[in-house]
């Protein structure tokens, strides 16, 4: 029979990365495409011990239905860490546990976006956010990213033209570009948004994965009532447990809670207890330091390989944290076509175009440096360099 | 600052049950309000062993990101069980693992409902479905439930008047009424829907919790291309792991997969592996038999207590499975007001009105018989009987 799908489905970009990831399931492919953390760094034994403790001490409770907001000791941990790390005063009641930070975007869209609402997003912008928000049919408007954050002259002009409902951004080690907003840029963006009614959605998935320099202030320190932060255990503990969180002012949180209950009642409760126990009984700062040391070395190696293997005229970002860097090839080298050649060479990346809501990024690519080990980075970047040289001819 | 929420939030019923559940957190309250399974029947040791096995044998894989569709061996198990239990031919590729079956409703709404689309729901209907679908702003139309399922004369008239996009129903041990559609009723409903373009959403959360009689055919056996089934491990294994599934024809599943990826990428992968291992290494049929034996005894006890403690003029359903029964008090005994008296007596239930999209159920209540043990059922029903008698005066 013919099916009639909701019109919102027509506005959702095809699931480009999922299709790529399928191709890269072939074991011979070295993939810089996904956004996966390094599995070598997972604290498998410690998490297994935490799971065993929870089941032994509170099994029946951990297996039962629980509250929509999430496990209170876990929310208290998150609030305490914001206080210590960023000096932010966030009450545990302003935090709700989600199924990974991707779900934060769905809940924010559900609660705040009517069709046609103007939504600002970085250019290039995070593909997962484009997908999540698309289902709520906003009018996307993109703010160019330059070296140290959004182009504020452009942002100012856009806000003068029309107010925006939301501005979604990734101020620290942005996905896909690897760019971090400077301290000055954070203040300037906040000053432009203040009083406009725009809510800044600060995706802080990579804030803890910082290699160089100290933590920079959250936009929430300038816009306490107009910032929603999304966070994630995926990059610092494990993505397989799908645990993230949303921190929002109380009035927004009331609506988020209603939407969360309607969407799936609550997040996996056993997983929340396991992570809470793991965080109580392990030194998360030491664990994060191990991760950032490894990723920094992998970033350095990937950049060295670009210098060695790629032709002249290639430019790239030098991320001070996170998992991605952004490479721009010379004119006339479209990366969607390059990808076909690269896959023939058994190496994968994400073409830049996927990160633009309004076209662009044709000669750019996103490279992930967290998932592949050093040997794979060397071999994979040689293959990719060869593909680029061949393509440029 | 003033926040401007999406208009869909205004159409969502206040989270009535969540508010009640909060009241019932006082330990002295005996609650027949929630829809919780009996924690005494959780297979805590077996699930702990499964968790340990998975972490030991495949920890790094289980902690990594995974596919949107879900863990293939788990989807194969579900497909195999449909084949054996109901004679249904469902391919594992037509099954996607969700965060509990509540998420199925969100995904179905997202993929299929435009604002104003006519949606049929049973009267009374499942509150969680009303909440989930409300966010997609359909035009609810309610089909009265009578003893053996929907009133087909009424359904026929409604379908003649205007076609419906979806018909959401719970054919086996319905929530809230406890009613099961008879075999004849299933055929008759399917015959009325055939060729109208209406998709039947068969919520089968309780199909395995059947006390009396054999399993009845799924609507999908009559309407293979026009039925979506939602299922859950919450009632037969554990709700705390939030694992359910959706079974839908391939063309619908493609859209569901896009929506699932945008909503939260994928369901908790470690939990999927734990449940799959548990199902491989334990006899789930024997476990389900223990659950149904216990719930049947609890249902019998609750009915005996109604007979003993409630005044004349009270009627009730006699569910042949599931977790709920439905009590109707005499005229002039509104259960929203009765609830206040009941809470003073430290006993809770859900007033009938919560289950009506168009008013009604004023003198009805839903009672859960699965969560409280026998002693609590005796004490709680005495308190509730006293509250009813006092209220009627």
TrEMBL record, chains A, B:
This is PLP-dependent aminotransferase family protein. Its cofactor is pyridoxal 5'-phosphate. GO terms for molecular function: transaminase activity. Keywords: Aminotransferase, Pyridoxal phosphate, Transferase. It comes from Methanoculleus frigidifontis. It comes from the Archaea. Residues 43-383 form the Aminotransferase class I/classII large domain. The keyword Metal-binding does not apply.
